[in-house]
Design goal:
CATH superfamily: Gcn5-related N-acetyltransferase (GNAT)
Helix content: 10-25%
Number of helices: 5
Mean pLDDT: 97
Number of strands: 9
Distance between the termini: 23 Å
Number of domains: 1
Low-confidence stretches: none
CATH topology: Aminopeptidase
CATH class: Alpha Beta
Shape: globular
Oligomer: single chain
Strand order of the largest sheet: 1-2-3-4-5-9-6
CATH architecture: 3-Layer(aba) Sandwich
Radius of gyration: 14 Å
Amino acid sequence: MQIIAVTENKKQYLSLLLLADEQEDMIDRYLERGTMYVLDDNGVKAECVVTDEGDRILEIKNIAVEPDSHGMGYGRRLIEAIAELYASDFDTLRVGTGDSTLTIPFYEKCGFKRHHTIKNFFIDNYDHPIFEGGVQLIDMIYLEQPI
């Protein structure tokens, strides 16, 4: 298993990116300014995009694991590797997600704690309703952990 920085042609992983953020123009807002990593374990199994948000905060903008590889630790391994890689340059690792029973528990198991909420984020920023686990996402929940 290896984690590889992707510096060119990041859109070759669009199918993975869309698993975590289903509107391509929203991905375009951070993809080029972000640093992208893929986890390869006999093929690409996961991807992650992080951005420098200032004040020594590194934000996970997109993280996704191939559906047939869920539950194998790839997402957690990416988060751990990113935290290790950026620990000397950043104090905080942040992630924003919908208020979903599918994602919040994952991040909490990875050591994140709820930090703040942006009300109506998904309604105000997406051109169609976003659903996860049968529930419409409305607010963006931000979680953080020290690195």
